[in-house]
UniProtKB/TrEMBL annotation:
Protein name from the UniProt record: Integrase
UniProt-listed InterPro entries: DNA_brk_join_enz, Integrase-like_cat_sf, Integrase_catalytic, Integrase_DNA-bd_sf, Integrase_DNA_bind_dom, Integrase_recombinase_N, Phage_int_M, Phage_Integrase
Chain ranges of the Tyr recombinase domain: 207-385
Alphabetized Gene3D superfamilies for the sequence: 1.10.150.130, Integrase, DNA-binding domain, Intergrase catalytic core
Biological processes annotated in GO: DNA integration; DNA recombination
Protein species of origin: Kushneria avicenniae
Length: 398
């Protein structure tokens, strides 16, 4: 006889498990401790004629009507040659791995493998993840990789292109193309949409950052001197001119890296593109700017803390926007300052290897393999940078 609610409610436990049948495989089990649970027994549809059992939950959490509905669905699956227990297990695994094919998950898998290949002293692991976090994950990180179209990627890359972040665009293209290769090999996508996107993007020749020529330096220096915006921005633009470091190296600089007595800034290897510590001589004018800056941000770790979070550096667009407001839009960007300095120092007659070392560039050819001189003798790079500082900021006060 089919079960009734009254029969279920009045069923009393005994010292042995009691089985109450509702028919067609659906049963209610009454345990000695009084707990009641639904069971469904069926013959596997694989031809083995083996019996199997699956649980539908406990009563009264699962009502009689709900248990019958579950049993009906299980019978339907059996009639179609599908094992209902295996079907449920597959569904549960799919739910548990719902984000397994999301781009962020694949990126993490790719990054973990690459991090083991890259040298321990390399900054590539940290750099690559930072690029993905800043420029990719906000747009497609939580989307299944199959749903991301070539136009989505084109939008991400063109956004960086329009912002003048050509190096970041190159890195995004390179890293994400590599992630897709992993996805193709592991069968999660059929093709790599980033492989052919280059034809729709602007070609950018390395080294062509917008920059003024040495003859325009007085205009730039005067514009910085007259800047009436955030004084931290003013100090930052001055220090870029006085040190020739990359904007990112200065933005992320910490006070502990500076030795005022030795007039020396040691940039740690993990922040350097070449993966080794870089020594930057500090001319008098740079020390003056740093002392003024220290009175403002010296109680922070960073020289240039962010406006909303002092543990993070200021935005990488801050100096770029300031130069645009000064009238240098399309003419000069922060990174271009290094090109301007290099050109001017060559015209002043300084040795190329001193200039390349100041810029933290690897020397070309055989020189780059066997030459490790830092040219930090007082009459070498320190004297060169002091002469440069005195040329652009003649007064000792930077």
């Amino acid at each position: 006889m089919p079960l009734t609610i009254k029969k279920i409610q009045t069923a009393k436990p005994s010292d042995k498990t009691i089985t109450l049948s509702d028919g067609d495989g659906l049963q209610l089990i009454v345990a000695p401790n009084g707990r009641k649970g639904w069971r469904f027994r069926y013959t596997r549809p694989d031809g083995s004629k083996k019996r199997n059992m699956m649980s539908f939950g406990s009563y009264p959490t699962v009502t009689l009507a709900e248990a019958r509905e579950k049993a009906s669905e299980a019978r339907r699956l059996v009639s179609q040659g599908i094992d209902p227990a295996e079907h449920r297990r597959t569904e549960q695994e799919a739910l548990e791995n719902l984000d397994a094919d999301h781009f962020r998950t694949l990126a993490n898998e790719w990054h973990s493998g690459k991090a083991q290949q890259w040298k321990a002293t390399s900054n590539r692991a940290k750099l690559s993840w930072s690029v993905l976090e800043n420029h990719v994950f906000p747009y497609v990180g939580d989307r299944p990789i199959q749903s991301i179209t070539p136009m989505d990627w084109l939008g991400i890359l063109r956004r960086l292109e329009q912002q003048g972040k050509h190096e970041q665009k190159r890195r995004v293209h390179f890293f994400c193309r590599d992630i897709y290769r992993l996805a193709v090999v592991t069968g999660r996508v059929d093709s790599n949409p980033l492989a052919d996107l280059g034809v729709a993007l602007q070609r950018f020749k390395k080294g062509s950052m917008s920059h003024i020529g040495p003859e325009e330096l007085p205009e730039l220096v005067q514009a910085i001197e007259n800047y009436r915006g955030n004084v931290l921005v003013k100090y930052g633009l001055k220090l870029l001119l006085l040190t020739a470091v990359r904007p990112g190296e200065l933005r992320k600089a910490e006070w502990k890296e500076f030795d005022f007595d030795k007039a020396l800034w040691r940039i740690p290897a993990e922040r350097m593109k070449m993966g080794k510590e870089h020594k930057v001589p500090l001319p008098t004018q740079a020390l003056d700017v740093l002392r003024d800056l220290h009175r403002i941000t010296g109680h922070y770790n960073l020289l240039f803390p962010g406006r909303n979070d002092s543990t993070r550096p200021m935005s990488d667009m801050t100096w770029s926007m300031a130069l645009k407001r000064m009238g240098f839009d399309g003419r000069h960007v922060p990174h271009g300052t290094r090109h301007t300095i290099a050109t001017a120092l060559k015209e002043m007659g300084y040795p190329g290897e001193w200039i390349e070392m100041q810029l933290s560039h690897k020397l070309p050819g055989i020189q780059g393999i066997y030459t490790h001189a830092e040219h930090m003798a007082p009459e070498q790079r320190p004297a060169m940078m002091q002469a440069w500082a005195s040329y652009i900021f003649p007064s000792a006060k930077g």
